[in-house]
Design a protein that fits this description.
Blueprint (H helix, E strand, L loop, with lengths): L2 E6 L4 E8 L3 E9 L1 H5 L6 H22 L9 E7 L3 H18 L3 E5 H7 L10 E6 L4 E8 L2 E7 L5 H11 L6 H9 L23 H16 L6 H27 L3 E5 L6 H14 L2 E3 L11 H13 L18
Parallel strand pairs: 1-4, 4-5, 6-9, 9-10
Antiparallel strand pairs: 1-2, 2-3, 6-7, 7-8
Helix pairs in contact: 2-3, 4-10, 5-6, 5-7, 5-8, 6-8, 8-9
Length: 333
C-alpha cells in the first residue's frame, strides 16, 4: 500500500489530499479563492500567491487529519510543479520541498495536466484512452498509451476553452467564473445565433476559440450600438453549443485515429453539463466507453495529483531539491 500526500497550488485553489495506491482518496481538502477573485473578473496572480501562503499549512494539516494519517505513515510527498502561475506554483512547491526534506520522504513533481488526466483513474479508467483536458488555461486532446506515455493529438492555437467561456461571460455581464454561469444561462436560452466554426487542414485536430469569442464580442457591441436588447441566454446557448460541438467532434475523431474505445473528459470545463451530455451521447453512438470525473475532481484539486504521483512512485521517478516551478511545460517532457 502506497500512501501519498499531494499538494496542488497552480492557480487559485490551495489543495491537499491523501491518496492510497493512486485510486483511493482518504482526504481531499480544497481552499478556493474564487469568491475573492470574482470582483476582479479573473485571477490576480499576486493576490493568489499571497493567499496560498496564508492557508497552505492549515490545508495540509487538515488533509492529514481527515485521512487519519500522520506524516510518518506517508510514503511520498507529491506536488504540482508545472505548468501554472509561477508564484502560486512556488508556494506549493516550496512547502512540499521543505516538508519532504524535514520528514525524509521522497519528493514527486507532477505535471498539472497529467494530474487532470489522472482524475479519471479515481473512477476506474485504465489506459489506453483518449481524453479531452479542457480548463481555463488548457485545451488538449491526449492519447494516453500508458499511465505515463502520452501523445498530444490536438491543442488550442489561441484561447483555451475555459478562457473563452470566461471572456464571453464578461461580455454578457455574467460573473466570474464564466463557465458555470454560461452553462446556467444557456439552459434558459435558444441556440439560434449562427456562429461559424474555424476551419483548419483536415489532418489537424487543433482548436481555435479566439474567432468565436471575437464574433460574440462584435455581435454584442453591434446590438448595443443599435440600442437593441442583449439576448444573453440565447448568446450563451449559441456560444456553448458551438464550442461543445467542436470539442466533441475533434476528440472522438482523435479516438478513432488512435484506435481506442475509451474516451474521457478532464479539467474544469469537464464540469459543463452540455459537454458531458454531448460526450455521453456520442460515446453511445460510436460504441465507446465514456469516463468523466465527479465534479469535485474536475476543478483543480490535490486528489488528482496523488493519483498521478502513484505512477511516478512505481517508476522510482523522484525529484531532488533542485525541482523548480515551471509556468509553461508540455506534458510528457
Amino acid at each position: 500500500m502506497i500512501k501519498i500526500l499531494a499538494i496542488e497550488s497552480s492557480c487559485d485553489e490551495t489543495a491537499a489530499a491523501v491518496v492510497v495506491d493512486g485510486v483511493k482518496v482518504l482526504s481531499n481538502i480544497i481552499n478556493s479563492q474564487a469568491e475573492l477573485h470574482k470582483k476582479y473578473g479573473g485571477v490576480v496572480p499576486e493576490v493568489a500567491s499571497r493567499l496560498h501562503v496564508e492557508v497552505i499549512d492549515s490545508v495540509v494539516k487538515e488533509a492529514l487529519l481527515e485521512a487519519k494519517t500522520t506524516l510518518d505513515e506517508i510514503d511520498a510527498i507529491a506536488v504540482t510543479h508545472a505548468p501554472g502561475l509561477v508564484g502560486s506554483l512556488l508556494v506549493g512547491l516550496s512547502y512540499a520541498k521543505g516538508l519532504a526534506f524535514s520528514a525524509g520522504k521522497p519528493l514527486i513533481g507532477v505535471h498539472h495536466i497529467e494530474g487532470h488526466l489522472s482524475a479519471n483513474y479515481l473512477s476506474g479508467l485504465t489506459p489506453p484512452f483518449v481524453s479531452l483536458v479542457a480548463s481555463g488555461g488548457h485545451s488538449h486532446i491526449i492519447h494516453s498509451e500508458d499511465y505515463r506515455k502520452f501523445n498530444i493529438m490536438g491543442k488550442t492555437r489561441d484561447d483555451a476553452a475555459g478562457e473563452a467561456f470566461d471572456k464571453v461571460a464578461r461580455v454578457l455581464g455574467l460573473p466570474y467564473p464564466g463557465g458555470p454561469n454560461i452553462d446556467k444561462a444557456a439552459k434558459e436560452g435558444q441556440a439560434n445565433i449562427k456562429i461559424t466554426k474555424p476551419k483548419f487542414h483536415e489532418e489537424t485536430l487543433d482548436f481555435s476559440f479566439s474567432g468565436i469569442k471575437t464574433f460574440i464580442i462584435n455581435y454584442a457591441h453591434g446590438l448595443e450600438q443599435k440600442n437593441m436588447p442583449l439576448p444573453k441566454n440565447d448568446i450563451a446557448a449559441s456560444f456553448q453549443k458551438t464550442v461543445v460541438e467542436i470539442l466533441t467532434d475533434n476528440t472522438f475523431e482523435a479516438a478513432k485515429r488512435a484506435k481506442v474505445k475509451k474516451v474521457a473528459l478532464a479539467g474544469g470545463v469537464a464540469a459543463n453539463t452540455a459537454l458531458r451530455k454531448s460526450f455521453e451521447e456520442r460515446a453511445e453512438k460510436e460504441g465507446m466507453e465514456f469516463y468523466c470525473p465527479p465534479f469535485i475532481y474536475c476543478t483543480d484539486n490535490a486528489a488528482m495529483i496523488g493519483a498521478a504521483a502513484y505512477h511516478y512512485y512505481l517508476e522510482g521517478n523522484f525529484a531532488d531539491m533542485s525541482l523548480n516551478a515551471i509556468p509553461y511545460k508540455p506534458i510528457g517532457e
